[in-house]
Design goal:
- The complex is a heterodimer.
- Chain A has twelve helices and no strands.
- By secondary structure, chain A is an all-alpha fold.
- In chain A, α2 runs antiparallel to α4, α6 runs antiparallel to α7 and α7 packs antiparallel against α8.
- The longest helix of chain A is centred in the first third of the chain and has 40 residues.
- The radius of gyration of chain A is 30 Å and the shape is elongated.
- Chain A starts with a helix and ends with a helix.
- In chain A, about 20% of the residues are buried.
- The longest helix of chain B is centred in the last third of the chain and has 31 residues.
- Chain B is built from three helices and no strands.
- By secondary structure, chain B is mainly α.
- Chain B has one domain: Helix Hairpins, CATH 1.10.287.
- Chain B starts with 5 loop residues before the first helix and ends in a 13-residue tail after the last helix.
- Classes of the chains: A mainly alpha, B mainly alpha.
Chain lengths: ~280, ~100
C-alpha cells in the first residue's frame, strides 16, 4: 500500500479524497467480512490496517504538508496509529461499554425514561446559568446565557406550555441575547479587563450567597404542602391564550403594548446621543 | 418520589434565581448585571409556568399569561437598559459600575 514517493508529491486532490473515502469504507466494512466469507479476526484486522493506511495516505495532503508521509515512514506511522486505535477500541468495547451498560440498566430502572429529558434540560439550564455567573470573560457569559435560555425553553415544553417556549426562543435567544452581544461589542469590553468582578463582594462570597439561597428556596419548595392537581394536562395552549388575552386580560394586554412603545421610543432617545455628538463635531 | 414533579421545577427555578443574583452582585460590567437580571426573570417565569401546570385548575392559564407579560417586560427592560449602558459608555468611556458614580458629565 505504500505509495511511490514521486506520486505523493503531486497527487491531485481527487485521488486523496477517494483514498480517504475508500479507506473509511474498508475500515467500516471489514468487521462484516466474517459474516459473508469464512475468514477470521486476523483478516478483519489486516483489512482495517490497509484501510487505515489508505486514509493516512489520503490525509497526507491536508495535515502533513511539512513532513510528507510516504513509503516506509507511512507504513511505520500507520502501524503506530493502528496499534493505538486497536488498544483504544479494545479498552472501549471490552471494559468501558459493559460497565456503562450495566450502570445504565440499573439507573434506568430507577428513573423514568421521560424524566431523563427533564434532567437534561435542567442540567443545561443550570450549567448555562453557572457559566453566566462565574465566567471571567463577559462574552463567554453571554454564550452561556444562550444555553440557559434554551434549557428554560425546554422546561416550558415539559410543563405543557408550548407558546411560552416558542416566545422564549424568539424573544430571549433571538432578541435579547443579540442585543446583549451587540452591547458587549459596542462597549469594547470583550476581553482584557481583569477586574470583571466586584472587589467588595468577590466570587467566594457570591458562591456562599448562591448556596444559601438555593438551600432555603429548595427546602421551601420541597417542604411546602402545595395543592398539586391529580392529573396535569398536556394540551396546546395557543388558542386558549389568545382568547384569554382578548377577553380576560384585554386591559393588561393593551397596557403592555403601550409599555413596549414607550420602551422603544425611550431607548432610541437614550442611545441616540452619540450620533448627535459625532454629527455636531463632524460639522 | 420517582417521577418529576413540581418541586423539581421549583428547585431549578431557585438555582436560576440564585445564580442570577450572584451575577448581579459580583459583576462590575453593566452588561453582565443586565444578564443576571435576565436570569432572575427567567427563574420567575419557570415558577409561574410550573405552578400553572401543577397547581392551577385545569384549563386555567393564569401562569402562562403572566409569563408572557414577564417576557414582554424583560424585552422592554433589556432594550432600555442596554440603551442606558451605551449612553453611560459614551459619557464615561467605561461601563464599570463602580466608576460611574456621577449623574452629570
Amino acid at each position: 500500500m505504500a505509495a511511490a514517493p514521486q506520486r505523493d508529491a503531486g497527487a491531485p486532490w481527487r485521488e486523496r479524497i477517494l483514498a480517504i473515502l475508500g479507506g473509511l469504507f474498508v475500515v467500516a466494512g471489514a468487521p462484516l467480512l466474517p459474516h459473508f466469507f469464512g475468514v477470521g479476526t486476523p483478516a478483519v484486522l489486516a483489512g482495517q490496517f490497509v484501510g487505515l493506511t489508505a486514509i493516512l495516505w489520503g490525509l497526507n495532503r491536508f495535515f502533513f504538508r511539512r513532513l510528507p508521509l510516504s513509503g516506509f515512514v507511512l507504513v511505520l506511522f500507520s502501524i503506530a496509529v493502528f496499534g493505538v486505535l486497536f488498544l483504544l477500541g479494545y479498552f472501549t468495547t471490552e471494559i468501558v461499554l459493559p460497565f456503562v451498560g450495566e450502570f445504565a440498566s440499573r439507573f434506568i430502572g430507577l428513573v423514568h425514561l421521560a424524566d431523563l429529558g427533564f434532567y437534561l434540560f435542567a442540567t443545561m439550564t443550570i450549567a448555562g446559568a453557572a457559566g453566566t455567573a462565574f465566567s471571567r470573560n463577559i462574552i463567554y457569559s453571554a454564550w452561556s446565557l444562550l444555553f440557559a435560555f434554551m434549557g428554560v425553553a425546554g422546561l416550558y415544553i415539559f410543563l405543557g406550555a408550548d407558546f411560552p417556549a416558542v416566545a422564549q426562543v424568539l424573544i430571549y435567544v433571538g432578541g435579547i441575547l443579540v442585543l446583549i452581544l451587540f452591547a458587549i461589542m459596542l462597549t469594547k469590553q470583550i476581553g482584557g479587563d481583569p477586574h470583571l468582578t466586584n472587589a467588595h463582594l468577590a466570587l467566594p462570597a457570591g458562591g456562599v450567597l448562591a448556596l444559601a439561597t438555593v438551600a432555603i428556596l429548595s427546602y421551601m419548595a420541597v417542604m411546602a404542602p402545595w395543592k398539586v392537581v391529580a392529573e396535569p394536562q398536556y394540551v396546546s395552549s395557543v388558542q386558549s391564550l389568545g382568547i384569554a388575552f382578548l377577553t380576560e386580560y384585554l386591559l393588561p394586554f393593551e397596557v403592555a403594548s403601550v409599555v413596549l412603545l414607550a420602551a422603544l421610543i425611550g431607548s432610541v432617545v437614550i442611545a441616540r446621543k452619540e450620533i448627535k455628538e459625532t454629527t455636531d463635531s463632524g460639522l | 418520589m420517582n417521577s418529576v414533579g413540581l418541586p423539581h421545577f421549583l428547585i431549578v427555578g431557585a438555582a436560576l434565581f440564585a445564580l442570577g443574583m450572584v451575577t448581579v452582585v459580583t459583576r462590575r460590567n453593566a452588561v453582565g448585571i443586565l444578564m443576571g437580571v435576565e436570569l432572575i426573570l427567567n427563574a420567575a417565569n419557570v415558577n409561574f409556568i410550573a405552578f400553572n401546570h401543577y397547581v392551577d385548575a385545569p384549563g386555567r392559564l393564569t401562569g402562562q399569561v403572566f409569563s408572557i407579560f414577564v417576557i414582554v417586560l424583560a424585552a422592554a427592560e433589556a432594550a432600555v437598559g442596554l440603551a442606558i449602558v451605551l449612553a453611560i459608555f459614551q459619557t464615561f468611556r467605561t461601563i464599570d459600575v463602580q466608576e460611574t458614580d456621577l449623574l452629570r458629565e
